[in-house]
């Protein structure tokens, strides 16, 4: 009966706790259900802790599986926890019945006075409820023995309303024991699976890598206990590999994770296990396939597994496990004879020739030259289909089935498998194939190709691969092949940009790669090297950048083997986006999307979706942009890509057309993931997304701090062109909002000449919006209004509706400050119309706030700035200078100086007068 220690999995359960509390408050009874490990107990304990805090009496009962076979075991455990004072008032027979039960719980029940025992339990509960409410928390109700359940059901019918009951039962919304105990109609609260966001929060709380949240969510099905176990297993695997666990590796279902998965699988009857194992071994299981493979009762058995929350069966018969770790655990726990038989049955049942070959290969473990050749042909077919991960898996299988007398064929298959894995981003398969290559008598060229595959599979996380780079360089030198040396230098150029944040070294490495590629006659590599040079040139404001890109585009490169994201055609799209040539960028992207979907590279598809998101958002098509962002995020989770870029894209889409709160959450997650992977490029972008949200939601001090981090990172990365990441105007606006218009002006004066010299017209417009706000704060409202009106017209001409709407919001703010209410209202109405047409919901909500929040001084009244108004509200509400400084992220001296100006503007001399003035406004 002892309770076992459980990890803190109480994430995302605030709404559930409130729902249980309401049910207990109105009905006195509540039922909590959910699968094992879903967090039911954590919710129940949170409810009990709240009752404890209110000084209520809490009785806890948590039977275990073995207790259901011992009559009255749970009743004895409950009474053993009751304070002795509650037993003193019992009549003799009742006291004796309880004493006998507590003393001889497992003794024969014959001869006991069961009526006295029932009345004794009723009297004990009434006594405990006399001074105040009692909460009976019954966890694991499904393990109640029948006699205890009957006893409690009788007692609870006769107890006063102050005896409340929370019964927790395992299941998928069905709680027969708890419902029988509490009565029909008792409110039932089901604990749902955690979402990917909540899994990320859970991992962060336990110090685990948040960048794996998407994949852990997929593998755990949102089960908190399994998610934590997978996270810990991953951390242990990283420790055994010297800290080098990769985002694309399959999550290790070992140790604690396997035990949790086993407990979940035990919820289904034992006779369903063979069918579940077949489903686990199949790539795309269906009920029809399982029947053909020898399970005639597949539907009925899967229905039982579905009730145990292990699988979901679609209307078309498709079978999906609720957690990705479950099929892995099933296969791992099955013996070789079971797995072999299962694969043999599936080989005869599947209708895809490639899958049939795969199952036949997995059904045997002996070398076979003919089978190895057949597997190789299947891998070639997968490559043509764009199924590069499956091609890599088949390539490894083909190598394993190759007889010892064919070493050349085995090496070719291993190198091919490594390259397929690199293309697919499967670091685990790439490392496995590369280890096998390095353990054989491979040529320097084969060794280099295998090592390059490991680098290609790493995605954004290149910082930990210095040793791999070093070996690849040395072996490429030994091979004396300019094309191989060019390939290595290309990867070095990418690393200098992504992980080192050094565009100069990246540009120089790309130049060396281009010269080597040209010497080796490799025009594809030459085009990619020129592409890197052009990309770095744009960052560094190199005037030759566009000419270099044009040179790359002129080379014949019909298919880029290292990804469309590294091709000149894609960089041309990015440059069009930077220049706000949005129609051009969009048409190019829509032409690229089918091409990258055919290649089978998830990273290529993500890149195109990312750019489509940015294009649509800037065009003011927020709904379409959000749809692209969702697809990009889903793809990232499904393919196991580095999540930092996807979370940045999701943040920008939410900030434009969804929710500022969700945007901030995605941005913070992206920041954390990019920091974990040492991805300097997307770290800047995540911070930029967060800073813009903080600015929009009025957290000026936080926005300044966040955007200054962006400025530091961009300076460290030597970024010169302000069109690549447009943080300058955002930081200037944040400085104005934080009452530092002089600092904003200094920043604007430093960047405006650069933007003008480069011809970055949209950037200049954004800088002028910030300058208009600075002019207003510095006492030049007429100049501010004129500049903002002109800027709004320029944004309209540029086809940038969201930027125009933001400018109209700024104009309304300035007009209110100069007490021109009608022009302010007109600007707000116009902004609202712009945002409504664009589907920019969070900005529309801001525009509709045509008056300050209740109790706030109108910006026109007394000419308070927004920053001054926030401080006035805090101080007028009773906050001390120190408290206000902490709340607004200011120094106490700044608060004192700003408060002096507020007093002067409002004509008051004390805090009391300030409060009165605020009430008047």
UniProtKB/TrEMBL annotation:
This is LuxR family transcriptional regulator. The lineage of its organism: Bacteria, Bacillati, Actinomycetota, Actinomycetes, Kitasatosporales. Residues 857-921 form the HTH luxR-type domain. SUPFAM superfamilies: C-terminal effector domain of the bipartite response regulators (SSF46894), P-loop containing nucleoside triphosphate hydrolases (SSF52540), TPR-like (SSF48452). InterPro entries: AAA_16 (IPR041664), P-loop_NTPase (IPR027417), Sig_transdc_resp-reg_C-effctor (IPR016032), TPR-like_helical_dom_sf (IPR011990), Tscrpt_reg_LuxR_C (IPR000792), WH-like_DNA-bd_sf (IPR036388). Pfam families: AAA_16 (PF13191), GerE (PF00196). It comes from the Bacteria. Keywords: ATP-binding, Nucleotide-binding.
């Amino acid at each position: 009966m002892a309770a076992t220690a459980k990890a803190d999995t109480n994430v995302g359960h605030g709404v559930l706790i409130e729902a249980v509390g309401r049910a207990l408050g109105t009905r006195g009874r509540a039922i909590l259900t959910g699968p094992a490990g879903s967090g039911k107990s954590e919710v129940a304990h949170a409810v009990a802790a709240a009752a404890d805090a209110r000084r209520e009496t809490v009785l806890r009962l948590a039977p275990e599986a073995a207790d259901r076979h011992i009559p009255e075991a749970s009743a004895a455990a409950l009474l053993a926890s009751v304070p002795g004072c509650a037993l003193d008032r019992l009549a003799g027979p009742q006291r004796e019945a309880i004493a006998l039960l507590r003393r001889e719980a497992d003794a024969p029940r014959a001869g006991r006075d069961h009526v006295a025992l029932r009345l004794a339990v009723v009297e004990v509960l009434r006594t405990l409820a006399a001074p105040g409410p009692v909460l009976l928390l019954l966890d694991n109700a499904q393990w109640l023995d029948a006699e205890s359940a009957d006893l409690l059901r009788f007692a609870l019918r006769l107890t006063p309303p102050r005896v409340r009951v929370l019964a927790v039962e395992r299941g998928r919304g069905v709680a027969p024991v708890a419902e029988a105990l509490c009565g029909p109609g008792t409110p039932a609260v089901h604990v749902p699976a955690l979402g990917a966001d909540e899994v990320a929060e859970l991992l962060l709380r336990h110090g685990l890598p948040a960048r794996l949240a998407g994949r852990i969510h997929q593998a755990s099905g949102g089960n908190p206990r399994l998610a934590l176990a997978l996270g810990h297993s991953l951390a242990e695997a990283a420790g055994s590999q010297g800290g080098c666990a990769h985002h694309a590796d399959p999550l290790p279902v070992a140790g604690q994770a396997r035990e949790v998965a086993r407990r979940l699988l035990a919820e289904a009857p034992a006779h369903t296990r063979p069918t579940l194992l077949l489903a686990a071994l199949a790539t795309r299981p269906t009920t029809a396939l399982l029947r053909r493979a020898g399970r005639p009762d597949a539907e009925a058995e899967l229905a039982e597994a579905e009730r145990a929350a292990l699988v979901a069966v679609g209307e078309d018969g498709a079978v999906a496990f609720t957690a990705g770790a479950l099929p892995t655990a099933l296969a791992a726990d099955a013996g070789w004879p079971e797995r072999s038989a299962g694969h043999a049955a599936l080989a005869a049942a599947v209708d895809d020739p490639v899958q049939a070959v795969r199952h036949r290969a997995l059904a045997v473990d002996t070398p076979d030259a003919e089978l190895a050749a057949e597997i190789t042909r299947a891998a070639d077919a997968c490559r043509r289909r764009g199924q590069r991960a499956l091609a890599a898996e088949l390539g490894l299988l083909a190598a394993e089935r190759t007889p010892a007398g064919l070493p050349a064929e085995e090496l070719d298959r291993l190198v091919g498998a490594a390259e397929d894995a690199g293309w697919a981003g499967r670091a685990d398969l790439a490392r496995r194939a590369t280890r096998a290559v390095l353990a054989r008598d491979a040529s320097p060229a084969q060794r280099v190709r295998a090592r390059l595959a490991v680098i290609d599979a790493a995605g954004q996380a290149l910082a930990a691969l210095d040793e791999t780079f070093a070996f690849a360089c040395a072996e490429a030198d030994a091979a004396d092949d300019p094309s191989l040396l060019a390939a290595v230098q290309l990867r070095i150029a990418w690393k200098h940009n992504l992980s080192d944040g050094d565009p100069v070294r990246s540009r120089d490495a790309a130049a060396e790669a281009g010269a080597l590629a040209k010497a080796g006659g490799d025009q594809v590599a030459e085009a990619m090297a020129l592409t890197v040079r052009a990309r770095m040139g744009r960052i560094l404001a190199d005037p030759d950048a566009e000419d270099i890109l044009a040179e790359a585009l002129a080379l014949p490169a019909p298919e880029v083997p290292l990804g469309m994201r590294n091709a000149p055609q894609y960089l041309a799209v990015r440059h069009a986006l930077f220049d706000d040539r949005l129609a051009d960028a969009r048409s190019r992207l829509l032409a690229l999307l089918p091409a990258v979907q055919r290649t089978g590279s998830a990273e290529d598809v993500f890149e195109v979706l990312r750019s489509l998101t940015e294009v649509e958002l800037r065009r003011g098509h927020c709904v379409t942009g959000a749809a692209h962002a969702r697809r990009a995020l889903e793809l990232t989770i499904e393919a196991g890509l580095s999540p930092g870029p996807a979370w940045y894209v999701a943040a920008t889409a939410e900030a434009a057309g969804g929710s500022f709160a969700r945007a901030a959450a995605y941005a913070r997650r992206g920041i954390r993931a990019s920091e974990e992977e040492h991805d300097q490029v997307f770290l800047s972008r995540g911070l930029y997304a967060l800073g813009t949200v903080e600015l929009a939601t009025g957290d000026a001090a936080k926005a300044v701090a966040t955007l200054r981090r962006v400025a530091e990172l961009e300076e460290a990365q030597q970024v010169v062109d302000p069109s690549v990441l447009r943080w300058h105007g955002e930081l200037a606006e944040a400085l104005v909002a934080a009452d530092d218009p002089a600092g904003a002006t200094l920043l604007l004066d430093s960047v405006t000449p650069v933007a003008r010299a480069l011809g970055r017209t949209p950037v200049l417009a954004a800088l002028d919006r910030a300058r208009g706000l600075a002019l207003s704060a510095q006492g030049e409202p007429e100049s501010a209004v004129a500049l903002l009106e002109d800027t709004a017209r320029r944004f309209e001409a540029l086809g940038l509706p969201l930027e125009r709407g933001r400018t109209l919001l700024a104009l309304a703010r300035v007009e209110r400050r100069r007490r021109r209410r009608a022009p302010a209202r007109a600007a707000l109405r116009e902004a609202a119309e712009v945002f409504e047409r664009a589907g920019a919901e969070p900005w529309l909500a801001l525009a509709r706030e045509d008056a300050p929040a209740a109790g706030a001084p109108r910006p026109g009244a007394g000419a308070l700035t927004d920053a001054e108004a926030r401080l006035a509200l805090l101080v007028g509400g009773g906050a001390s200078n120190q408290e206000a400084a902490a709340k607004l992220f200011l120094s106490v001296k700044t608060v004192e100086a700003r408060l002096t100006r507020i007093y002067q503007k409002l004509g008051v001399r004390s805090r009391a007068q300030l409060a009165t003035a605020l009430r008047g406004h």
